[in-house]
Write a structure and sequence with these properties.
Elements: E1 6-11, E2 14-19, H1 30-45, E3 51-55, E4 60-62, H2 67-70, H3 75-80, H4 87-91, E5 97-101, E6 104-106, H5 108-115, E7 118-122, E8 126-128, H6 142-150, H7 152-161, E9 164-166, H8 167-173, E10 178-180, H9 185-197, H10 201-213, H11 219-233, H12 237-247
This protein binds hexanoyl-coenzyme A (HXC).
Residues 24-25, 27, 63-68, 83-84, 104, 106-108, 130-131, 134, 138-140 line the site of hexanoyl-coenzyme A.
Keywords: Fatty acid metabolism, Lipid metabolism, Lyase
Family: Belongs to the enoyl-CoA hydratase/isomerase family.
Protein name: enoyl-CoA hydratase
């Protein structure tokens, strides 16, 4: 399948999606969203694909939602079309995915990176929510996900001043899982994705659901949710296979059921 604004490649069990609007620093317009919704749904539905990496270019992961597309829009159009609500289809992806970020991840770019299960950053990465400088505010989850990731003080400062945060500060603050040299970014992200792709598929989904539940529930509810899912995994063949392989000192062969 070929797309207008992204490039999708399959590397074994890993899908690599590259944002490809270099002339606009990968600014996210409606076509990018439509392409990503299609690519992520195809990934989620393909039993042979086990992890996905979303990346941009060396200069920009994405410099935000497309300002030129939004400029002329009024409230009625934005509200009427529920502008960018389609991103919820991307966050509904059940299988794991990683954002590999080099260069600018600003506004919607930062927000898309934060939709990922985790971010691997190049040492060149710069994160920011500069919408205030355009007379607006984050609209794709930034005020909520950034605050959950790095806490109120830094999130509020970043939203109110629009300043950028470099990779080191982002790692210290808990926004990114790991920093790698820019030249190794995609290779490192693919290596991590391959590791995840080698795990039992249902366990991968369950682990993702559990960690995400921590952002949606109180502690007792979250722990109950975890325990029930943990119990549920004992109904899978892969639990038997994984534990039997450990005891038998051999490599597990996952069935995905
Ligand atoms: C449309 C964009 C763009 C954007 C860059 N471009 N960002 N086009 N939307 N968000 C375009 C420029 O217009 C220019 O095209 C080309 O990409 C290269 O950008 P330059 O500005 O010339 O590059 P540079 O001088 O290196 O500066 C890089 C930059 C700057 C610092 C990242 O481009 C910048 O500040 N961009 C905007 C960042 C931003 O405000 N993002 C938040 C958007 S609002 P031309 O054709 O002129 O050469 C948002 C809201 C989310 O994301 C919520 C939505 C619901």
């Amino acid at each position: 399948m070929s797309y207008e604004t992204i490039v999708v490649e399959q590397r074994g069990a890993v899908t690599l999606v590259t944002l490809n609007r270099p002339q606009a620093l990968n600014a996210l317009n409606s076509q990018v969203l439509a392409d990503l919704i299609h690519a992520f749904a195809a990934y989620d539905a393909d039993p042979d694909q086990r992890c996905l990496v979303l990346t941009g270019s060396e200069k920009a992961f994405a410099a935000g939602a497309d300002i030129k597309e939004m400029e002329a829009q009024g409230f009625a159009e934005m509200y009427g079309s529920n502008f960018f609500a389609g991103w919820e289809k991307v966050t509904a992806t059940r299988k794991p995915w990683i954002a590999a970020v080099a260069g600018f991840a600003l506004g919607g770019g930062c927000e898309v990176a934060m939709m990922a299960d985790f971010i691997i950053a190049a040492d060149t990465a710069k994160f920011g929510q500069p919408e205030i400088k355009l007379g607006v505010a984050p609209g794709m989850g930034g005020s909520q996900r950034l605050t959950r990731a790095i806490g109120k003080a830094k999130a509020m400062e970043m939203c109110l001043t629009g300043r950028m945060m470099g990779a080191e500060e982002a790692e210290r603050a808990g926004l990114v899982a790991r920093i790698v040299p820019a030249a190794d970014l995609v290779a490192e992200a693919l290596k991590t994705a391959e590791q995840i792709a080698g795990m039992a598929p249902l366990a991968a989904i369950a682990n993702k659901e559990m960690v995400n539940a921590a952002f949606e529930t109180g502690l007792a509810q979250g722990i109950l949710f975890e325990r029930r899912l943990f119990h549920g995994l004992f109904g899978t063949e892969d639990q038997k296979e994984g534990m039997n392989a450990f005891v038998g000192k051999r490599q597990a062969e996952w069935k995905g059921k």
